[in-house]
Amino acid sequence: MQEQEEYMEIRDKLKNLPKIKSDDNFEIMLQQKINLAEAEMQTISEKQNYSTDEKKSFFKKIFTRKTNYWLIPALGTVVIILIIVTIYYPYKKTELIPNAPVSQTLSDKVSDSPNVSRQTTIEEKKIENKLAEKNTTSEQSSDVPPKDIKNLDGYYRGGIEKELSQPTPVTPMKSDELRIKKNDDIETINAPAIEEQQKIESKSKESEQKDSRIIESKKEEERKGGDLSIEKSAPANKDEVGKSGKLKGAKEYKKSDKKNNRAVTDSTKTNEDDLEIIRNEILEKEKNK
Amino acid sequence: MLEVSNQHIDNKKLSDEELIIAFQNGNVAAFNELVLRYKDKLVNFLFRYTGNRDDAEDLAQDTFVKLYRSKHLYKEIAKFSTWFYTIAINTAKTDSRKKNRYNSISLSEFDPDEDKDYELTANVISPEDSANASMEHHYIQKAIDALEDYFKEVIILRDIQDLDYDEIAEITGLPLGTVKSRINRGREKLKKSLSKIYNNKT
Question: Which domain holds residue B159?
Fold first, then answer.
C-alpha cells in the first residue's frame, strides 16, 4: 500500500493522459491491407496447388489405367532391354576374350608380316614360350595315336607303350618362329616348341631303331630255329618293304597291317600283351600253312 | 439488411472470445466487431509505446491484419485481449528494431580517433502531436519514451491500459514477481525523469 501511495501521483498522471483515438480512415486502410494480404495468400496457395497438381498429373499420366495402361508392358520391355544391354553383353564379351586364339593373333602378326621387321620384346618371348609349353603339355596328356604310317609301324613293332608315353610330334608352324631385328639383320629364332619337337622326333627315331634291332634279332633267332621265315613278319617300315620289293606274303602283310591298326586303336592294352598277341598270330598263321 | 443488422446486434452482445470463435467459423462480421472494440485501445497503447501517431496507426492495422490471417491460432485457453496485446507488442518490437537499424548514426566516421559508437535515435515529435497534446502530457510521453522497452511495456499495460498483473505476466511471458518489480522500477525511473524535466523547465 505504501508503494502504491508512493507512486500514486505518477499513476494518476499516466491515467489522466488523453486517450488517443484512431483515424476515421483506419477501417478503410485496414480493409486495403487485408485485401493485399488475401491476394498474397491466394498467390501462395495457387503456387502450392500448381506444384501439387503438376506432380499428380505426372504420376497419373504414367500409372493410371484409363489413360496409358499400355505403358506398363512397354516400360517392362524397355527395362528388360536395358538389363540385357548393360549386363548380358559385357559378360558375353568377357567370356569370348579368353577363348580367342591369342597365340595365333600375336605370332601371326609377327610371322605373316615378313616385309615388316618387328622387334620382339622379352615379354613377347616369354608369352610365346609359355604358350608352346602349354601346347606340349596338352599334347602329352592326350592319348590319341599318331596318324602317320611310320608311327603305326612303330606301334606294330611293339613300341606302342613308348609311343603312348611319348608326346605326339607337333608340326612346326611359321608362327613359332620369331624374327628379331638386330642391327638391321633379321634373325629367326626357333621357338622352344620346335626344339622339343625335334627332340621327340629324335627319340622316336631311336625307338624305331631299337625296334628294328629287336625284330632283326628275332628274325635271326627264327632263322636259327628254322621255323619262321622273313616273308611272314612285317617289315620295320613301308620304305623297307618298298626297298626289298619282292616279299611273297604281301597280302598277308596287308591283313596283318589292318589288324595292327585295330591294335593301335585299343590303346589301353599293354606292350607285353600286344607282343604275345602278335606272336600267337604268327604261330597260328604258320600252323595254318 | 435486417439479417445483417440483427447479426450486428448479436455480435455486440457476444464476448471477445465468442467473437473470435465466430470469426474462426467464417463470420466476418465478428471480426468487424472486434476491430470496432479494440481499434482505439490498440492505437492508444501503440502511440504510448512508440510516441508516434502514424506509426501507432500503421502498427495497429498490421496487428489486425495478423489477427485476420492467423485467426486459427487462437485457442480458448487464454483471454482474447491477452492474445491480441501479445500480437501488438511483438509487432511493435519488431518494427522498433527495424527502425533502430535505419535511424542509428555512427559518429566514429567523423572522429577516427574514437573507437566507440554513439548511437542516436531519430525520434522526432511531430508538430501536430505537440500542438494537440498539452505540454505536461508531452513531457510525460517524453519520459515514457526515455524508458527502456522492458519497463515501458509493463507500465503502459498496467497504468494506461489498466490490465491485471496476471494478464501482463501472460502477455510479456514473465513471472508475476518480475512483472511487479519491473512496474515499480519503471515508475521510479519515470518519476526521476519527470522531476528532472520539471526542474529544467522551472
Answer: 125-202
Q: What CATH number has the domain bearing residue B95?
A: 1.10.1740.10
Task: Name the domain boundary from B44, B71, B105.
Answer: B105
ipTM of the complex: 0.75
Closest CB from A10, A22, A34 relative to B57 = A22
Compare CB distances from B160 to A9, A17, A41 and report the shortest one's residue.
A17
Residue B39 and residue A22: Cβ atoms within 8 Å? yes
Binary contact (A20, B47; C-beta < 8 A): yes
Q: What average pLDDT does range A182-186 have in this prediction?
A: 52
Q: What's the number of CA atoms in the CB half-sphere (13 Å) around residue A81?
A: 6
Minimum mean pLDDT range among A107-111, A219-223, B163-167: A107-111
For residue B131, tell me if it sits in a domain.
Answer: yes
In this structure, the answer to whether residues B48 and B89 fall within a common structural domain is: yes
Q: Is residue B145 part of a domain?
A: yes
DSSP state of A178: E
Chain B: nearest CA to A13, how far in angstroms?
8
Q: Is residue A56 scored above 60 in pLDDT?
A: yes
Residue, of A144 and A207, whose pLDDT is higher = A207
Res. A61: pLDDT tops 80: no
- B158-193 in b/e form (b: 16+ CB < 10 A) is bbbbebeeebbbbbbebeeeebbebbbbbbebbbeb
